[in-house]
Amino acid sequence: MTGPSIRSSAHPPIRPFIEVSGLTREYAAERAWLERRVTFRAVNDVSLTIGRGETLGLVGESGSGKTTLGRCIIRLIEPTEGTIHMDGTDVRALESATLRQFRRRMQIVFQDATGALNPRMRVGQAVKEPIEVHRLARGADADARVATLFQEVGLDPSYRDRYPHELSGGQRQRVVIARALSVEPEFIVLDEPVSALDVSVQAQVLNLLGDLKRKRGLTYLFIAHDLAVVRHIADHVAVMYLGRIVETAPAATLYGDPRHPYTRALLSAVPVADPKPGRARIVLAGDPPSPLKPPPGCPFHQRCFHPKKNSRCATERPELRVLDGAHRVACHFADEWP
Amino acid sequence: MTAVLSVRDLGVTFDTPRGPARAVDGVSFDLHAGETLALVGESGCGKTVTALSILRLLPDAARVAPGASITYAGADILKLEAEPLRQVRGAGIAMVFQEPMTSLNPVLSVGWQIAETVLAHKSVGRATADARAIEVMKLVGIADAEDRYRAYPHQLSGGLCQRVMIAMALACEPKVLIADEPTTALDVTIQAQILELLVDLKRRLGLSVLLISHDLALVSGVADRIAVMYGGHIVEEAATADVFAKPVHPYTEGLLGAVPRIDRPELRLAAIPGNVPPATEWPAGCRFHPRCAHAWDRCSTGEPGLVAAGANRTARCWLIEEPGRRKSS
Ligand SMILES: Nc1ncnc2c1ncn2[C@@H]1O[C@H](COP(=O)(O)OP(=O)(O)OP(=O)(O)O)[C@@H](O)[C@H]1O
Ligand SMILES: Nc1ncnc2c1ncn2[C@@H]1O[C@H](COP(=O)(O)OP(=O)(O)OP(=O)(O)O)[C@@H](O)[C@H]1O
Ligand code: SF4
Ligand SMILES: [Mg+2]
Ligand SMILES: [Mg+2]
Fold first, then answer.
1. Best CA proximity match to A325, nearest among A2, A68, A95
2. B:165-194 residues touching chain A, CB 8 A cutoff
3. How confident is the model over A200-227, as pLDDT tens digits?
4. Per the CB < 8 Å rule, is A269 touching B191?
5. pTM for this model (two decimals)
6. Whose C-alpha lies nearest to ligand 3, atom 6?
């Protein structure tokens, strides 16, 4: 892994707010025709950092391991290997009492707001409950906090008495965001928070998330498959493929000068709301390989179109190496594009 | 240009516990020979109901407005008897549905399912149908079509299943292909493959395509014309370039501002305030007025009709009569 950025001053280097190193999560793959159980790595040796107040966008195809990684970081799922530090504290070493304290500081918002809310609980109560569980406020104080939170996420406080089914999809996602905010977290994993919403409502929620981040100084891990949405909200972006990060860079670099062929293909495949021709689209052949049988060498080599691709790609896996500053790429020929 | 398919005054109402839901209302459009017309709009605006009406696949609970007509090959589909309707569904107009996995039968091999479609619409034998299945699987770019014939849906990726669905739709050589969100469930790199395939097939087979999508950006690259739907209405219809260069309807304008663009990051998106109301509660007047930045009192009382808004374009908005009311942004 690459550590925190090296500073030339006499002060000790400032550790990034979130620091993940060598994180791996294995799952057992049930294979009916085999007697024995096989394991595979849904997340494979991932290292990343997120600075305080920053947003890391995590993109990649379905099944590449984004959700698993996000959940491992906040210990909703136990990693198989690796370390996670938040604000300098080793999150994996925490015992239950201190872990509960840390849980408050790390929240998650899922894609499916409907599934995340209890259908028989009024949404005001859903937001109030974590406040009371974490003993941040009680009774009328807690109610006042709920009212403020509703206003903050753009919901009229009178909606507190409604049930989830009496709200629209966008309103439910606002409730879920209010609930995550209710315990005053510093770090939020947003797992496809707008994917289920219509574009007009998606824009409202994206604006809200941006405003909240700036106002409260929040740190986000923003998981999405829509690269246009990520461009809009992220400071840094990491691209996952088959459980590994294959490229990571500041957003402007990743979108302006992508170096991994997979990132290039992904970006060129994003439709642009503009009928003028002119963009050459790279259409990748084939499907992503199964994580149960990752190919030898570069995980991308079967679909790769890099003009320099050669036999080395099929045997030797490229490490995620520093190309330039914070720009890291796992491709043997990242700096050899024509 | 000749219209292969003409929809006129289509209205579809569902009776629900909360009253009648006017899912589609006063929808008229022509699909011209060899063109791709995109039907675009947010969830619940009536895209799928419109498509299902064309093939008469609506659930029994649906009531079609008495004045509606859908003309294909000189006949009104809404009035066809069972046998000619079967002909239209097979060899005339074919449809690809949104969820490839759930539209395929999980216990039958995909090749068998394609061959079944051929048998249902053509008087040919099993061997001919099987050969045709393999032929169309090759046509849609499925490698090892002979082997894949025997594969079950769960053994194929989402992208391959969607290719199978397209192969099935093309098996009886239709003139019109209706594709309802054909790439929504797919990853972006696979989405690009399927779009490329549709464009290529359209050109090679001379198809006319009705492409249904919620994604303006996606259709911008493939559609010749766009019809934007809101609240069961078509609110604007124009050539793709015109829609993007100068949207007439405030909803179209709003949608264009709300879509995050990968080539133009901005700090805030121009979100449209509010939500789409349920189909049982369309507001009086213009259905978009509670969310519209330009609305004035006329908009909340009178319902605008779909009228000409320049050369070869129509829109449903009072601003066409009173352009001075448009607020500059
Ligand atoms: N509980 C589990 N048991 C076994 N395998 C799992 C489990 N959860 C996830 N997986 C597998 O791990 C891999 C990564 O899944 P994950 O949900 O993290 O992907 P993702 O990138 O979030 O995908 P998506 O974009 O579809 O949400 C997939 O192959 C998935 O099938
Ligand atoms: N069987 C039904 N019973 C009652 N209402 C229905 C039925 N089918 C559709 N509707 C209603 O008709 C309206 C239009 O639905 P339709 O499925 O055409 O929307 P759509 O534009 O295809 O949306 P999406 O993008 O979500 O697929 C919706 O308000 C929907 O709730
Ligand atoms: S390492 Fe080789 S196969 Fe992998 S992405 Fe780079 S060029 Fe392609
Ligand atoms: Mg996921
Ligand atoms: Mg639909």
1. A2
2. 187-193
3. 888 888 999 999 999 999 999 999 988 9
4. yes
5. 0.87
6. A331
Contacts of B318 (CB under 8 A, 6+ apart): B286, B296, B298, B299, B302, B304, B325
In angstroms, the CA A77 to CA B202 distance is 47
* A238 residue type, one letter: A
Q: Is A191 helix (H, G, I), strand (E, B) or coil?
A: strand
Instruction: Give the gap in angstroms from C-alpha A22 to the nearest C-alpha of chain B.
Output: 27
Question: How big, in percent rounded to 5, are the helix, strand and coil portions of chain A?
Answer: 35, 20, 45
User: B262, A231: Cβ pair inside 8 Å?
Assistant: yes
A166 CA to middle of ligand 2, Å?
18
Please say whether the beta carbons of B241 and B67 come within 8 A. Answer: no
ipTM strictly over 0.90? Answer: no
Question: What's the rounded Cα separation, in Å, for the pair B190 and A304?
Answer: 15
pLDDT at residue A4, rounded to an integer: 45
**In this structure, what token pair is assigned to residue A267?**
């970006």
Residue among A266, A332, A335, A337 to mutate when testing ligand 3 (max atoms within 8 A of CB): A332
Q: Does any CB of chain A come closer than 8 Å to the CB of residue B159?
A: yes
Counting every residue written for chain A, the total comes to 338
B68-124: per-residue pLDDT in tens? 999 999 999 999 999 999 989 888 999 998 776 678 898 999 999 999 999 988 889
A332 touches chain B (CB under 8 A): no
Q: Ligand 1, atom 3: nearest CA belongs to which residue?
A: A27
CA distance B157 to chain A (A): 8
- What are the Cα distances from residue B66, in Å, to A232, B5, B61, B63, B280? 47, 19, 15, 9, 20
Neighbours of ion ligand 5 (CB under 5 A): B 48
Contact A308/A81 with Cβ under 8 angstroms?
no
Measured distance between the N- and C-terminal CA atoms of chain B, rounded to whole angstroms: 37
The single residue listed with the structure tokens 């309103």 is: A171
The answer to whether residues B171 and B117 touch, using CB atoms and an 8 Å cutoff, is yes
CB B158 within 8 A of CB B188: no
Q: Which ligand 1 atom is nearest residue A43's CA?
A: 14
CA distance B47 to B103: 18
Residues B117, B120, B123, B129: is their CA dihedral positive or negative?
Answer: positive
Question: What separation in Å is there between the alpha carbon of B307 and the centre of ligand 5?
Answer: 26
* Mutual angle of helices B188-205 and A261-269, in 10-degree steps: 60
What is the position in ligand 2's atom list of the atom closest to the CA of B12? 12
Reported confidence tier of residue A11, pLDDT bands at 50, 70, 90: low
Residue carrying structure tokens 């989405």: B191
Contacts of A225 in chain B (CB under 8 A): 187-188
Q: How many helices (H) and strands (E) does chain A have?
A: 11, 12
For the CA of A246, the nearest atom of ligand 3: 5
